[in-house]
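Take a sample.
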Amino acid sequence: MPPTGHRPQAASVNVKRNVVPRDIGDSPLCLALALLFWGFTALIVWGPVVLLPVFSVAWGQPPTWVVPWLEITLLQVGIGAAVLTPLYFAPGVERLAPSARFALLGPVAVAVALTVLFCVDLPRM
């Protein structure tokens, strides 16, 4: 072959690997962890908004102090979406199985919800 002045390329320049990963991400443990973490997140975020009106009706009090808790809940949901959406679509996380992805992002969601809850000035009852 006559020299053309170009360096020979490697046999495979493709970045994607042709390796089939082990599918341990869909194991029942990942699903259980995802349900545990996201259930705890839902309890932190929506618990005060759902339970406080029930208690106020049971105690015969007007539910006027529910509105600040609703604002805190909306803040938790907004900040959680702003933090978790880029992480969900990150290349390393996007390749995971869905249950492994949610099990991995669950503790982050709990941390965001607790951080917002502790850093916001809680309403006085």
In short: Residues 56 and 63 are 6 Å apart (CA to CA). The first helix runs from residue 28 to 59.
